[in-house]
Amino acid sequence: MLTKLKTIDPSKVRRLEGKILDADNLDGICENCLFDIEYEAGPGLIKKLELKSYSQSTINNILFSTKFKNQFKAYLANANNMNSFEYIFNSKKVNDLNFIKSKFKELFQQDNYKIYDDINNVNPGLWNSLGINDIGDFAFMVDNLDQNLYKFIDILN
């Protein structure tokens, strides 16, 4: 995953492995959640990267990992929009982007789309930035794998 780091201008890197600061808004769900890289992706755009070297079987189980879900919620609670962070998966471990998106879809759908309310209570601006006004809008975007919602997922070749 150092390949991704090599593509970033060193002068743009702000921090390596730092705390997701607004995570405390989630009532202790993820008090010590960390990001891997924070950098200036463009003028006025600070982006956090989460580098995952997960096998297909590990990705298949993210729905059952409290730690993974809480970290993901911390990213959402901290984001201005879906360009504020990126989950980058190692193509040597899994190279099917649709498979990864389908697992995040299941995560979004879990407990009747509960993640919508969890994030809406602390950061409604994130959903507003996507044109999501209610849980129905959210469910529609989730179920249809709307690119604007899932654009935070990438595979590093």
Labels describing this entry:
157 residues; alpha/beta; five-stranded mixed β-sheet; 7 helices; 42% helix; globular
Overview of the structural elements:
This protein has helices at 2-6, 56-60, 66-78, 97-120, 124-129, 135-143, 147-150; strands spanning 13-19, 34-42, 45-52, 85-90, 153-156. It is α/β, with parallel strands linked by helices. The protein has one domain. Strands 1-2-3-4-5 form a five-stranded mixed β-sheet. α3 (66-78) packs across α4. The mean pLDDT is 86.
List the helices and strands and how they pair.
Layout: H1 2-6, E1 13-19, E2 34-42, E3 45-52, H2 56-60, H3 66-78, E4 85-90, H4 97-120, H5 124-129, H6 135-143, H7 147-150, E5 153-156
Parallel strand pairs: 3-4, 4-5
Antiparallel strand pairs: 1-2, 2-3
Helix pairs in contact: 3-4, 4-6
